Amino acid sequence: MKKVLLTILSFVVCSAVFAQDLPTNPEPGKCYVRCVTPDVWVNQDITVQVAPAYKKLKVVPAQYRTENEEVVIQSSGQELSVVPAQYETQTFEVVTQEASQRLEKVAGSTDTTTEEIITQPAYQELSVVPAKYATENFEVVSAEAGQTLSVIPAKLGTENFEVVVQEASQRLEVVPAQYENRTETVVVQAAYTKLETVPAQYETRTETVVVQSAGQRLEVVPAKWATENIEVVVQPASSRVEIVPAQYETQTVEVVVQEASQRLEVIPAKWGTETMTYKKQEYGSTLTVVPAKFTSGYQVIEVKPATAKWGMSDTPAADCQSSDPNDCRYWCYKNVPAQNITINTTELASDAQVITKPGCDQGGNNSADCGMGTYTRKVVQTPATTRVIDIPAVTKTVKKTVMVTPPTTRVVEIPAVTKTIKKTVLVSPATTRVIDIPAVTKEVTRKVMVTPPTTRVVDVPAVTKEVTRTVMVTPPTTRVIEIPAVTKTMKRTVVLEPATTRVSEIPAVTKTMKRTVMATPPSTRAIDIPAKTTTVRKTIISPETTRVVEVPAVTTTMKRTVMTAPPTTRVIDVPQKTTTLKRTVLASDARVEEVTVPAVNKTVTKEVLQKKGGLTTWKEVDCKIVEYNDLNINWNLGSATLTNAAKAEIDAKLLPVLADGVSVEIASHTDSRGSKESNRALSERRAQAVTNYLISKGINSSRIVSNGYGESRLTNRCSDGVSCTEREHLANRRTQFRVINAN
């Protein structure tokens, strides 16, 4: 009974709710959309401090003025002045002509004698003895001696050697050793080298062989004779003495007319410098501004508070009797979370401050020397003195006659008396001239070894053989019983004697030829011809002589100056000197000017709920927009980008519908060409492109649903594998919208 009552009660409640959901007074043929009234929000501006107020400090530097100060730069002192020496005039004698000598002549004598003269000298005549020649045999090398190498091959012998085919090991009584077979390479013939002959290289050369050596022959060049006139001295040349008088010249002689003396020269006082210290500059304090420090922070501002909205359940009630599933769905008041924004702010960590340093702390200067200046003062280090300077003697140039060259004699040659006699003179003696006889040569071709024979080493690799032997892998662990190694005798080839080479001498090939050789060179023999003489008379003369006569010197009287009083000095006082220095004085110390920088604020717009929505209302709409309506959008191939024409289509058809507060679905489709996955992805991107454009125009995204169906909803027969025209495919490439009740 209770079940029946509960069922009736729930039916009455559902009928009442269903009756309230329907629009009142509907008109036939009209369409209505059920809308939930939205919440009304208003924007409210709030101010947020993003940077605090802080102090900004400005340093006004210290002010200075300049003052003058008079200081002594040269102290007083003394200087010396010279009083010159006094002089007088004296007389003295000077030699104006030195003593000299002159010569007197002493006459000579003559005598007569005879002398024999050769009118034709003795000479020799030459007779040619011709050279003697002989013929001899000589050998010409037509092929030089060389060497050939013949290989003596290495001698190989066979020897027996033992190869361990099983190593010595141990066996255990309890745990026997484990063995495995390994393959090793054993050398059965050791590697060796053999020599390979590299033959000598020969080439043919042409040489010139002397078959008759060069020689000489003598040809007599007869002596040449000529007749010439010769002068025979019948009286030899003599000389007579002629006195050459002494030569005098006037020389310039320096005579002292003022004796050497002395004068006093003042050595001026030595002035030194002193570095004087004075207060050149006064320093004020140095102010260093440490600017304010800031840290970064943030503030979270709630721009839209948390709200709630009505939403319909996804599944209808289980006992719903209506054919429309939307009639029996539950309505839920769902929470919408608050929306916040984060604003970056600047916070004051430490305000600006001033650090004061005394003026003398600048640059790490010593406080004792701070602001001090120096100037140089001139002081007397060594007073003025005098030094004696020698004045050289004053001389006068006097002319005097000096004998430059003493008197001598000059020999005047008296020519000999000659007599002309004809005699035969040998102009050129008989000689021989050598006439070269060129050697007679003959070209002979012979073979010459260019490169001697050598050997090159050819490596012969070792011959190996693989032998299988047993090797102990696991060592014994208990009592060991020695097992001797198993060996095997094998043969291998070893090198007894390495390969060598034997040098075979190849004798040179010679050829016997004849040539003419000069056995005795040509020579000459001399024939003596005696000289011819004649007798001539001549005179002999004795020379003249001279004797020396002395000539006395001549003098003259002159005047000269003599110093009677030496020079002295007198003292002169030097006054001190002063100068004006500039120094800097502190007028006003450094100070700080403070400026307050105001805080920086930022205005944020916050949404505030003014009127609560959530009421369900019915609104009349055009019946056409409840069904799918086409948007005339021509997409570029494979593109999901809206063109300007597509945007104009959306502005004209879709924005006016959304202005009434309804919700819409954007549906995009493709044709069947291409894979299903790629077509669905492309249609979803195109539907989302329309949605993004509507959001940019201010439409809330909650009022738009975008779906991409790909090729799943074709409007014609053009499915996969069906041949269709481009016009038929174009009908499937469409983008549509319809009004839905999404609230």
UniProtKB/TrEMBL annotation:
Its main location: membrane. CDD domains: OmpA_C-like. Residues 622-743 form the OmpA-like domain. Keywords: Cell outer membrane, Membrane, Signal. Pfam families: OmpA. It is found in: Cell outer membrane. GO terms for cellular component: cell outer membrane. Residues 1-19 form the signal peptide. PANTHER family: LIPOPROTEIN YIAD-RELATED, STATOR ELEMENT OF FLAGELLAR MOTOR COMPLEX. This is OmpA family protein.
